[in-house]
Amino acid sequence: MKRCTIFSVNYLQFVSYNPCLSFASSCLPFLSYGRCLYQGFSAISTNTRPFPDYSPKKPTIKDAELVNRVSTTIKLRRCEPLRSILKSYESNFRSDHLIWILMSIKNDYKLVLDFYDWVCLRREPTLEARCIVVQIATVSKDLKMAHALIHDFWAKPNLDACLSYTNFSERLIYTYKDWGSDPHVFDIFFQVLVETGKLNEARKLFGKLLNYGLCISVDSCNLLLSDLSRNFDGLVMAIRVFNEYPKMGVCWNTTSYNIIINSVCQLGKLKEAHHLLLKMELSGIVPDVVSYSTIISRYCHSGELQKALKLIEEMEIKGLKPNVYVYNSVVLFLCKNGKLPEAEKVVREMMTQGVIPDNVVYTTLIDGYCKLGKVPVAYRLFNDMRIRKIIPDFVTYTALIDGFCKAGKMMEADDIFLEMVRRGLQPDEVTYTALIDGYCKIGEMKKAFSLHNQMVGMGLIPNVVTYTALADGLCKQGEVDTANELLQEMCRNGLQPNICTYNSIVNGLCKSGNVLQAEKLKEEMEVAGLYPDTITYTTLMDSYCKTGEMARAHMLLQEMLDKGCQPTVVTFNVLMNGFCISGLLEDGERLLKWMLEKGIMPNATTYNFLMKQYCIRNNMRATTEIYRGMCSQGVMPDNNTYNILIKGHCKARNMKTVEFLHKEMAGKGFLLTASSYSAVIKGFYKRKKFVEARELFEEMRRRGLVADREIYNLFVDMSYKEGNMEATLDLCDEVIENCLVRRSKNEDIENCLVRRSKNEDM
Fold first, then answer.
1. Quick check: is 406 in a domain?
2. Do residues 645 and 611 touch, judged by C-beta distance below 8 A?
3. pLDDT at 315
4. What pLDDT, in 10s, does the model give residues 742-753?
5. Mind listing the pLDDT tens digit for each residue in 461-490?
6. What pLDDT does 739 receive?
7. Mapping DSSP to helix (H, G, I), strand (E, B) and coil, where does residue 10 land?
8. Where are the PPR repeats (predicted)?
9. How far is it, in rounded angstroms, from Cα 147 to Cα 191?
């Protein structure tokens, strides 16, 4: 009996256990529920049996004559179509004749296929005949045809897998010895079983062949591993196969290890996956780029960048060049953590190594910069893609559109959207929702609803985020009733509003003064199974604080704490603002002290509320104490802090302190507001520091800030007294434009709004 030395191996040669599989053994305790699929392997006999001899039914004299005539005819007239030369034999032709004729022509492979096709057009061949042709195709090295013949049988609908497997495998084994003796035929059969999802039958075939001294090839077993690893239960089975099959004669290769490393990674066993990588080398199996990149990707995903970088270094030492997938993983990690400059540095290094960044790398960077609000940088990268002829996909366009929308640059977002459509890329729900949200944020609700209708017309279904954006936009325009109607429509469409949807409407109700209705909506949220979060409570508390209802705000805080909802520093800032505008500064200071005692770190805004109120009361001693306390807690003052302090000290005529604070804030990159400029200029003017006052006034004008009429009058008089008529006239023009014309326009707009409101009431 012939044997293919590459494929056909004696089971006895591989009984010894492979030490490289100790990891897989260690996985068995948590994979024990998958044991039933492989039971029976331990009972496989170590004594191989021979393949059976083929002994078909003998033809009668009459059948033998017909077979002889048909065989002779198709051999002599092989260039003619069989349908014409065999027409006279069709009525007498039976299934048995096919096998007998194949015996006569089996050495002429083309003729075998032609004759088999002729028979198939007239009647379904027997399973034995199909297996014979499969054997002939395999021994003729036409493995593609052998695969197709087996696959056609197993792809039939309503096939009884168990019965069909028994019949097919028996017929294939029965015809093997005399019709082919090429073990690749079983390899092909195994592959088809895996491809058609008959994994249990594939396992049975593997075990059956061991009894005949044959072992399925490692490439076919890899196909099984790959198929199993497509879902969670399969991952468990894949590891078990990886552990069991070497005992049966399979010698795993690099591809096998790559599949199982990925499976172990998907199960969250990253340490074990790395250990398996080390075991590969100890077993003499060389890891490739895929082996390393799989683990590198997982290290990046789990936030362990240093371990990933160490593996990259190890790869390079071994002469393995990191591929684009490796770099993608590192770039994605850096972008997710906001380290965009470092990510770009990795991309530059990638290019110096001759690895061309692909669409994924650029899209990751573009999305990262957009999320940080650095849309110009993202757009630069987008142009760089086009220069390098790297084609953006709809994800790239959507990321850029979303970035422009969040930055309020709707014209640029529209241009990118139109370019996307012109390129034949189909926008999805995410693309449309980004545009809708952008238009809602700038108050263009008509355009937002037009886009909503457009996406529905395209067959795209608006999601919860889409409706939330529309509801938020309506609420910000005071159209809370319409937003509520939208909420009802959303529910009718089978979509469950999320916490963001409800919070948008709660915010709208609070801003329109309907706090009681907002409270009622909070109760409806709970009935719907959505519990109010920190934003819900903070929004309601803010509304009560602004109306001076501090007792109600405090009750909400208590309710929030009772329900296990943790307040943030924003929540406490809302309370602090309420205390301050209600004049309850002592209560505000007690709140600050309580926050510090509870380990809740205030921010600059917390201190600013208190400092502002003490400045208004002209109590600069208390203001200074709060400022010092802020610095001692390590809270850095912000732009607002300096402006509050400067205006307070100007009011108290502490101009030396003002000069010191102004110099300090400028050194930190902070800027005075228009009202602060006015306060400081007036302070210098009263101290007859005209040079300093004029320098600040000119600086204010250069920044495009508009001074009040009193400030202009000071410098008009000053310029006139100095005899500088040109400067005087320029200032007069400015004061007319900024203080008279602009105010007149604002008054006209206000009067128009009042008239419109009266007409609507009528």
1. no
2. yes
3. 87
4. 444 444 434 443
5. 888 889 888 988 888 888 888 888 887 888
6. 67
7. coil
8. 253-287, 288-322, 323-357, 358-392, 393-427, 428-462, 463-497, 498-532, 533-567, 568-602, 603-637, 638-672, 673-707
9. 8
Mean pLDDT of the chain: 84
Task: Provide the number of structural domains found in the chain.
Answer: 2
Residue 456 · residue 462 · CB < 8 Å: yes
Asked if 508 contacts 536 with a C-beta cutoff of 8 angstroms, the reply is no
Cβ-in-10-Å burial (0-12, 13-18, 19+) of 699 comes to middle
pLDDT value at 28 more than 70: no
Cα separation, 448 vs 404, whole angstroms: 15
Burial (CB < 10 A; 0-12, 13-18, 19+), residue 433, is: buried
- Token digits for 117? 């096709």
| Number of Cβ within a 10 Å radius of residue 157 | 4
| Residues ≥6 apart with Cβ < 8 Å to 351 | 357
Among 194, 250, 201, 197, smallest CA distance to 224 is for: 194
650 close to 683: Cβ distance less than 8 angstroms = yes
Coil/strand/helix, residue 52: coil
Q: Say how many CA atoms lie within 13 Å of 612 toward its Cβ.
A: 18
Question: Alpha-carbon torsion 450, 454, 459, 465, what sign?
Answer: negative
pTM above 0.70, yes or no: no
**CB atoms closer than 10 angstroms to residue 463:** 15
Question: Residue 507: inside a domain, yes or no?
Answer: yes
Position 109 pLDDT exceeds 80 = yes
DSSP codes joined into one string, 362-399: HHHHHHHHHHTT-HHHHHHHHHHHHHTT----HHHHHH
Least confidently predicted of 178-187, 522-531, 745-754: 745-754
- For residue 693, tell me if it sits in a domain: no
The residues, any chain, with a CB within 8 Å of residue 586's CB and separated by 6 or more, are none
How many angstroms from the chain centroid is the CA of residue 255? 27
Q: Give CB contacts under 8 A, 24+ apart, made by 615-618.
A: 615/644, 615/645, 615/647, 615/648, 615/651, 618/648, 618/651, 618/652
Residues 662, 683: contact at Cβ < 8 Å? no
Alpha carbon distance 640, 275 (integer Å): 54
Tell me the residue range of the domain where 210 lies: 1-51+170-280
CATH at 482 = 1.25.40.10
Q: Which pair of tokens denotes residue 20?
A: 């490289």
Average of pLDDT values for 122-140?
92
**Domain presence at residue 254:** yes
What CATH number has the domain bearing residue 45?
1.25.40
Three-state secondary structure call for residue 691 = helix
Final residue of a structural domain among 280, 304, 336: 280
Q: Which among 245, 280, 315 is the end of a domain?
A: 280
Least confident of 305-319, 585-599, 713-727: 713-727
